[in-house]
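Q: Got a minute? One more chain.
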Amino acid sequence: MSIQWTRKVRRGTVALTVAAGLALGVVGCGGGGDDDKKARTTASASREEGTGPSPQEGQSDEPLAELRGSDGLMLAITSAQRDAGGFVTVNGTLKNDGAKSSVVPSALSGNETEIVRNGRSLGGATLVDSKGKKRYYVLRDTDGRPLTTSGLSTIKAGESVAVFMQFPAPPPETTEVTFQLPTFSSGTIQISG
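A: Always. Here it is, folded:
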C-alpha cells in the first residue's frame, strides 16, 4: 500500500466519524414534540401567574435571625438547610447599615492559621448544639480553604453581599442551633430539611 492511499483512508474515516457525531447531535437536540410544548406552556404559565420563589430556592421573606456586628454591619440569616451529603448550608446577607463604608473585620475569618492564610472569609462562624453539647466549625476543602464566602474586604454604606457557610450536620433530631460569628451578636436559628 502507498502512503497516499493510507492518508485518504484515514481522512475518510475521520470525515465519517465527524459526520456521524454531527448527525447524532442533531437528533439529540431535535424537536421534542408534545413534551417540549408542555414544558414551555407550564413555564410561561407560572410566570404569568406571578408566583413567588419556591421554598427550594432557600430564601424566605423574614430572616431566621438578624445579628448586629461592628461598624454598622448586620448579618441576616435567611436559611439553614440540611443537605443529604451530611452538611448544613447557612445562607444570608451581610449588609452595611452604617452611614459610611465599612471594612469587613479580619476577625470574621477566625484565628485558625490554615483558614487565615486563605484570605478574609466567614471562616470563624460556628454552630452550637446546646442539647448535644457540640460546636460545629465551618468545613474546609482539601487545600484548607473554608467552605464559605471569601474575598470580603469593604462594604459601602447601604450595600449588601450574599453570603454562605457550610458546616457538618448535627444529628437529625437537632433542629435548633445557635449561630456565632466573631464580632457579631449570636442568634438561634432553625435548621430545615
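A: The longest strand covers residues 73-82.
Q: Perfect, thanks.
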